[in-house]
Structure formats: structure tokens, C-alpha cells
Amino acid sequence: MVGAKPMEISKAIAVHEEYPATVKVSSERSGDEVQITAETLRRATGPMLVQLLRYKPNREARITRGENAGRTISYANVTQDWKVLAEWDGRAPLSMSAMAPGRIRLLS
């Protein structure tokens, strides 16, 4: 989906929210490490990827070229890093840790 089409993204999120959750995930940060736990709430189908996304809630960029030259644009939830940490089959509860140095926010 193209991020420049917010109505398509909003519609996809609304459709997804109608489905009951399959997995409960939680994470807790301690210094440069994050502890991730997960458990299935109902039958999960197929392997699942455990991913760690690091993002900045807000970022401003000064545009120096093109039709927007001279403007400052604010961006929301800018991805800084995205890693696949593991593949999980969901049969047993998941408990793992991952390094996440720095203060950039996390979404697991």
C-alpha cells in the first residue's frame, strides 16, 4: 500500500480490526535490551515472524530542492530500523530478548 493514500490505509486497518486477535504480544525495555513475550490466544496458522521496528514519533525535514524548496515538512512515525528477529510457530509461548541500543522507540 502506498503511504500517500491514507484512505486506503485507513480502510485496511478498519477491516483488520474486525478480526479477533490471534496473538498477545508484550515487550519491556531494560537499558539497551528488550524482552519480548508472546502467546497464542487461538489457533494460529503457519509460522509467524517476530520483528522489531524502531521509529521516531516525529521528524522534521527541511526541503532544499524542487517545488517544496524552503519548506519544512513534519513526518510522523518515521521508521529508523526494521529487523526480523525470529520465526515462531506459536505452539509454545515465546520469550526472547533482543538488543536495541539508544533511545529510539520500539514496536514489537
From TrEMBL:
Record Pfam families: DUF1223 (PF06764)
Q: Which domain of life is it from?
A: Bacteria
This chain's protein is named DUF1223 domain-containing protein
Species annotation:
Psychrosphaera aquimarina
